Fold these 2 entries.
Entry 1:
Amino acid sequence: MDAVIPGLLQPRPTPERACIVNPASSWPCDRGIQVAELQAVFWDVDGTLADTELEGHRPAFNAAFREAGLDWHWDRSLYAELLAVAGGRQRMAAYAAMRGEALGDTRLDQLRALKQKHYLTHSRSGAIALRPGVARLIAALQQAGVKQWIVTSSGAASVHALLTGVFAAEGHPFAGLISADDVAAAKPDPAPYQLALERSGVAWDGVVAIEDSEAGLLSASAAGLRCLLTPSPWEERLHTRLRNDPPAGASHPAAFEHLGEAEAPARQWSGPPCPGGVVTLEYLQSLLADGN
Ligand SMILES: [Mg+2]
């Protein structure tokens, strides 16, 4: 049965909105449209900031297999299939079963610990690149003074390793982090985004969440947030749906193949038209307008 994707397959219900108009802003209040000022962007990490599954977790699994003396190797296409199994430990157990091999709990725990060690080392080394347009948009938001928070279902250690590798000496621009260590319920539960709203002190109608998955979209939507979707490469079902049955109308969340660069515009599947295929601060602001 298809999962329901609020706001993607059907118009997003419009909750009661207390519209905040910033009198200092010349946009778009001058046009008489009541919108909240963009105050914060909440970033998902895995699949949104970077392709951490294929470029991070996959090589870490392979390094763990080598260190443990297993002759296993997960290439990109095999790993994309294995992602149907949630959780690394369960994924290794399922693959062992596919091969007709049995791994005991102790062996699985050892492999999981080795894999985590390699993932942290790999991430800190800067080997995982940001997705197209991410560095550009982060810099623009930082320059404009828009708060940026991380809202992820990953553990804090994995996130800090990635941020260290990507931003190195200059330091990362995020004002706060909500990780799996902070909430009892992971996405698609709204708890991570609700906690981010509480801790950041930002009103919900001044926030855009950027996500790559159905679970992330559900979580952000349930917290009442506007959400821009950039499906990650392994979200095949989402890609297929957007490709074959793109939702029509401006009332749906904006969905792009990535955030876009001037020299590499992103394909857009839904949401208000984005000239040039490059998601900018101004475009995120436009998503806060009533009717979007
Ligand atoms: Mg994600």
Entry 2:
Amino acid sequence: MGFNNAGVDHLVAKVRASRFDGVIGINIGKNLTTPVEQAVDDYLTCLEKVHAHAHYVTVNISSPNTPGLRNLQFGEHLDGLLSALREAGSRLDRDSGRRVPLAVKIAPDMEAEEVGLVADCLAANAIDAVIATNTTVSCEAVAGLAHADEAGGLSGRPVFEASNAVIRELRRRLPEMPIVGVGGIDSGAAALAKRGGRGRPGRSSIQASSTAARHW
Ligand SMILES: Cc1cc2nc3c(=O)[nH]c(=O)nc-3n(C[C@H](O)[C@H](O)[C@H](O)COP(=O)(O)O)c2cc1C
């Protein structure tokens, strides 16, 4: 399935033509057909093209719809990808005189230990922020319902607790890093639950997508 879109050049043309004057975050990922081993080339191409048009860039390594994409969240793949993007991002920042933060968006389907490894890698590569989380591939929350066994990521309530757990672990490991909490925010209380623990010094913000679109 991959990311259904008309490609980065089309996106840049749309952003250039837009009169929107708010904050623009651009989400980049690899093509469906690019092997994971060569994914870094796709991300670098996208970063080069979108840098001038974004206020921040999200590195999406957590969409469940591109087979193999989530492998980029681990080990050498992650370190190779983030170090290449950090280097390119810093060069583009210098050349343009514009600082464009890099945020990495991760999946909720991870054990605490795996979140810890991701956190270490984000810090080691001076990534600016982390967005937690994307949709979940766990069908637990919808077990027994029609279509429960279909492939694809679940948003809204089914991802709420899992994303909160990832945020808590990230906040524990990365007390200073801005965390954007996302996943099942359908009320003020749900938004507050994304803080990741009281008294922590790091800054946090939230994003609400599918559930908010239905409820608010
Ligand atoms: C139809 C749909 C399309 C999505 N497309 C993207 C995407 O292109 N990039 C991305 O990083 N996340 C994507 N997401 C994930 C959402 O941004 C969000 O992380 C996830 O749905 C959890 O938040 P929510 O429960 O508020 O929807 C998509 C989610 C849905 C439901």
